[in-house]
Amino acid sequence: MATPIDISELEKALDGLLESALVPDSWERTLEQISQATGSVGTHIMPVRGKFPAGFLSTPNLLEAFQVYFSEEWYKRDFRERGLAVAMSNGVVIEHDIASEEEFKNQSFYTEFLARFGFRYSAMVGFTAGDTMLSLNLQRRIEDQPFDRDDARLLIKMQSRLTAAAEIIRALHIARIDSMSEAFELAGTAVIFFDRAGRIARLNQRAEKLLDGNIRIVDRELVAISQEETGLLRRHLQAILSKESFVNPVVSTPVLFSRPGKAPLVIRAQRLNGVPAELFSHSAAVAIITDLSERASPSRDLLRQLFALTPQETTVARLLMDGSSPRQIAEICGLTYETTRGYVKKVLAKTGTQRQSQLISLLSSLKV
């Protein structure tokens, strides 16, 4: 049987939340103390929405269960999801708010997943960090006493402490993002930070100056003049922010935003990792933007020397780097479209790239 909640020990454990906000390495100890004070076998903190394998804090004894939770996709069948709305509105939800005794016996989430580790009863304390909804989850075993209404009245006292700790971490991470943004600004680099949904959370002045009628922000999304290019960036952000990216890391392939009459922008996005900031921060990814109009193209001799390009292939490569499409190159060079496509394929093959954005990223890194 689980021991009753020890109020004095819980108060001590909650005092550790503020320490953990300032000293991230102490989170494990604080969660262990909360587990012991509440008669739980383990404790973890997760986002209410957008769960992913690296985005949670947990006591070590729950990590094996979490590995199975994600690898076997039990997070898609988590019966307790239907209690989250209650947790957010009332502050606390216990297992018996979600499931009946009959469901404990028949629902596969209980019989096949939780029972594998000897777990059964839980309580969730909802809290927020900015606009991010989180829950602290307390886990008990099958043989333990379930959490009851009296427990819920005690656990609700945790909510304000959890929110305070989350806001401190969030504020510290925002300060870090501000510092990164300023550092990029001083280095003359345009950057945009994105939240977990791929929406813009922050951008520096250098990035703001690149916005015009062709490149703009619509509903906190970076939008190109081409719907196809906008879709490419949207899908790339979704990929690097997805659960699967932690199992199979996504290569940061540059995305090209073309601009009529100007050299294109090259956008390279990557995830910002790190628990607990991963949980509480408003920014989950950063994109570095390169304005190719500010970079000189590599010389024809350098291109021929490095990639064994013919004179015509060299011309095509430089035009591709300037953002010209194959049809535009055909018009400029007086070639047929099919002939130009052939040259483009040869340039990509010789440079070891697969698309124009990759070629631009490669050539823009070369010294002239």
List keywords for this structure.
3 domains, single chain, 368 residues, 5-stranded antiparallel beta sheet, alpha+beta, Beta-Lactamase, Arc Repressor Mutant, subunit A, 12 strands, elongated
Overview of this structure, please?
The chain is 47% helix and 19% strand. It is α+β, with helices and mostly antiparallel strands and 368 residues long. The strands form 3 sheets. A 5-stranded antiparallel β-sheet has the order 2-1-5-4-3, sandwiched between helices. It is elongated and about 85 Å long. The termini are far apart.
| Global outline | elongated
The CATH architecture category of the largest domain equals 2-Layer Sandwich
Which structural category do the helix and sheet elements fall into? alpha+beta
CATH level-3 fold name of the largest domain: Beta-Lactamase
Portion of residues in beta strands equals 15-25%
User: Helix share of residues?
Assistant: 40-55%
Query: Could you give a short account of the major beta sheet?
Result: 5 strands, antiparallel
Number of alpha- plus pi-helical segments = 18
Count of strand segments: 12
Could you list the spans in which at least 5 consecutive residues all have pLDDT below 50?
A: none
Strand order of the largest sheet: 2-1-5-4-3
Q: Please, how many domains?
A: 3
| Assigned CATH class of the largest domain | Alpha Beta
The CATH homologous superfamily of the largest domain corresponds to Transcription factor LuxR-like, autoinducer-binding domain
Mean pLDDT figure: 85
